[in-house]
Q: What sequence folds into this?
């Protein structure tokens, strides 16, 4: 198994753990944007500590320059995503967002970075798309309604794809951990400004137990970002980004076992499709 594949699998496993903790926090009425702001700060702080202990950090002007648009795009994607959740049911938002994002990243990675792919890779991506949609949807396949909410979902996809492609471009010349640290701190600043500008009831998390849970979620999120940045620095984006379908598999497993969410047979079929699709993408 190649190093980029190992890093990508570990990255999306870590992301899945972080997202599962996020789902728990949201189900217990944690403020979404306030929680996400604190989490972004913790992400940056955790990676900064790791960087100071184990890496040779170099915060050059080039890193500072590129981390600004990267952090802005990343934070805006989160803000628009939460807006979409207010307008449409989560079961409509997430399947469309995830599957469309994977498809566009695969296509644009081939076009922009001139990456070589085989017929097996195309078949693998098709299976991952089908599997992701089945895992994330309670009702199986359902055509999205073309309304305002769907347009906002498309905006989230555009921001996510732009962010992901920019990361792939930058990690070829910038240390992954240095870029991730600065991206998270810029994203934190953007979210702080947004919160104080549009949310008059902003307040600091008032519970130590809540803060600790956010810190744990941030640790797994930070590790996921470091691992995926590292994978992109040595592997092809057209192979790495479709593996994000594995994230949905882990979330499904964690939610079924630990969060006691209802089990659906079509989600199991989707899981099998994703796993086989990832095998085809990786060869």
A:
């Amino acid at each position: 198994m190649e190093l980029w594949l190992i890093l990508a699998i570990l990255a999306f496993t870590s992301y899945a753990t972080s997202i599962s903790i996020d789902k728990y926090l949201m189900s217990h009425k944690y403020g979404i944007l306030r929680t996400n702001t604190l989490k972004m700060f913790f992400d940056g702080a955790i990676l900064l500590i790791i960087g100071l202990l184990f890496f040779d950090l170099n915060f050059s002007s080039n890193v500072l320059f590129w981390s600004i648009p990267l952090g802005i795009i990343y934070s805006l994607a989160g803000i628009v995503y939460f807006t979409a959740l207010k307008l449409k049911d989560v079961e409509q938002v997430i399947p469309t967002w995830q599957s469309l994002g994977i498809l566009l990243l695969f296509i644009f990675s081939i076009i922009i970075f001139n990456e070589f792919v085989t017929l097996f890779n195309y078949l693998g991506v098709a299976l991952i798309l089908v599997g992701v949609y089945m895992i994330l949807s309670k009702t199986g396949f359902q055509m999205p309604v073309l309304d305002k909410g769907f347009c906002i979902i498309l905006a989230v996809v555009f921001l996510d794809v732009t962010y992901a492609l920019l990361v792939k471009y930058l990690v070829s010349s910038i240390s992954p951990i240095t870029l991730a640290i600065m991206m998270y701190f810029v994203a934190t600043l953007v979210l702080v400004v947004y919160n104080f500008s549009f949310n008059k009831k902003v307040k600091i998390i008032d519970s130590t137990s809540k803060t600790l849970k956010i810190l744990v979620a941030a640790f797994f999120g930070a590790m996921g970002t470091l691992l995926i940045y590292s994978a992109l620095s040595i592997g092809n984006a057209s192979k790495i980004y479709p593996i994000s379908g594995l994230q949905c598999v882990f979330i499904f497993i964690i939610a079924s076992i630990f969060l006691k969410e209802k089990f659906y047979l079509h989600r199991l079929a989707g899981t099998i499709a994703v796993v086989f699709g990832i095998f085809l993408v990786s060869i």
About this structure: The radius of gyration is 18 Å. The chain is about 80% helix and 0% strand.
